[in-house]
Amino acid sequence: MQIASSVPQMLCYHQHMSAEDTLAVCMLIVLLVAAGTVMTILFSMMRNAGKKDELAELLKEEETTPEPEGEPAGPDEEPSQPWEKQADWWRE
């Protein structure tokens, strides 16, 4: 009964390969996967470079709209708290 022949062979291992050769083949596979990942990222960046970003447009519109400046509190504003000074305390 041959147990070794029934076990499927590994991807990076061949019966006649030395350990050093197996390590080199596995490292090449890792490098190829890493290069493929970088190429995929670069390709997707190039493909999306010309598209307009809707969020950036909204932020630009938001920056250009001027905000109304706050006016100092006057007598017609909401009542002040008991611990607050009057709005014209410095005129006295």
Write the layout of secondary structure elements.
Elements: H1 19-48, H2 54-64
Compact description:
The protein is mainly alpha-helical. It has helices spanning 19-48, 54-64.
The low-pLDDT segments are: none
Task: Give the proportion of residues in helices.
Answer: 40-55%
Instruction: Specify the overall morphology.
Output: elongated
Distance between the termini: 109 Å
The total beta strand count reads 0
The residue-averaged pLDDT reads 76
Strand content: under 5%
Please state the structural category: mainly alpha
Q: Report the major sheet.
A: none
Give an account of the 3D structure.
The chain has 92 residues and is an all-alpha fold. The chain is 45% helix and 0% strand. It has 2 helices and no strands. The protein starts with 18 loop residues before the first helix and ends in a 28-residue tail after the last helix. The mean pLDDT is 76.
